[in-house]
Design goal:
Double Stranded RNA Binding Domain, single chain, 6-stranded mixed sheet
Length: 186
């Protein structure tokens, strides 16, 4: 009996750690004056809803844009919003942006933290790691006023697995970003 409870505890801890490892840091902000209860329909802000920063070169593949569009549409549909083709007839319009940046993480470890085998050394160890951080943002604009009413974002270190199979991380990021977006009640 005790062995079973130990295994159950180990299984629960493993599942908790696995879930924590797949969490994508995200956040959102909303305009307090927006009446989300009045929103029923949405459209893309334009035929190309990927917002590109002026003067920058963005290498986002057409397939990635398609995956992002489909993931956002699926999440909004699950929240009971209906997609319409014309932005002029939508209660709100949606745009998104994608960005990456090279990041540098430097850690310095003073002598006491290195262990007893290095006591004769009198310098700090410095570890430097470089990585690529990706950011996805989703923006919602009121259809009538054309003003921004909601913004959500997620950031994640881009791994080789993400590069070779981007569909799952795109789905997780979009789901995480839109989780706090208000659902439409029938």
């Amino acid at each position: 009996m005790r062995i079973r409870s130990i295994y159950a505890g180990l299984l629960a801890a493993t599942l908790f750690l696995a879930a924590a490892c797949t969490t994508i840091p995200a956040g959102s902000d909303r305009y307090s004056g927006a009446n989300f209860d009045a929103y029923r329909t949405y459209a893309w802000i334009s035929n190309d809803p990927l917002v590109k920063l002026a003067g920058t070169q963005q290498d986002v593949s057409a397939l990635t844009v398609r995956r992002l569009r489909e993931a956002i549409e699926a999440e909004l549909s699950a929240k009971n919003y209906k997609k319409v083709d014309a932005a002029a007839q939508a209660d709100f319009v949606v745009a998104f942006s994608v960005g990456t940046r090279d990041r540098l993480d430097a850690q310095s470890y003073p002598l006491p933290y290195r262990g007893p085998w290095e006591w004769e050394s009198h310098h700090n160890d410095v570890e430097v790691n470089t990585y690529v951080e990706g950011t996805l943002s989703v923006d919602v604009f009121d259809g009538a006023s054309k003003q921004p009413v909601w913004h959500g974002w997620a950031t994640k270190v881009i791994t080789n697995e993400d590069k070779s199979n981007p569909a799952p991380v795109i789905q997780r990021a979009v789901s995480t970003i839109l989780a706090p977006f208000p659902a439409r009640h029938n």
